[in-house]
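ligand=fe (ii) ion
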Amino acid sequence: MQRVEWTNDLEIGIPVIDAQHQRIVEYINTLASMQDDIDSDTVAKLIDSLVDYTFSHFAFEESLMEEAGYEYLSIHQGTHEAFTRQITVLHSQFKAGQDVSKDLGKLLLTWLIDHIQSDDQSYAPLVREKFSLIEKKSDGNWLGNTLKKFFS
Ligand SMILES: [Fe+2]
């Protein structure tokens, strides 16, 4: 499995989202480094966490786009749903004993490169513009509360 090098062109300029994307990259790289050391229990735990974290990230991102009034939210949600379906299939196959870590890594890699650089980049300017307004409207609690809601 291929490692991902975090580069500036993967940044969308929204620190909380960039940090989550970086965390997913770390998961992928940890998975990549575990390829030869087949402790299935550790790999299973890592894949569970990776899948769980990715879903929380999607939910958080959708909430942020909704709050900012992003007009292509439903299209973006559709992309997340398509990924979710594919990840869920691979996750079930993994739990049934198949070695899908390579496929899972490849899928997430595609998602990272393509999805971040196109879909995520396209909502970024609006969210960057509205972010302080969103925080102000909620007395500075929106970010903290929403993170707690999806990443507890
Ligand atoms: Fe996204």
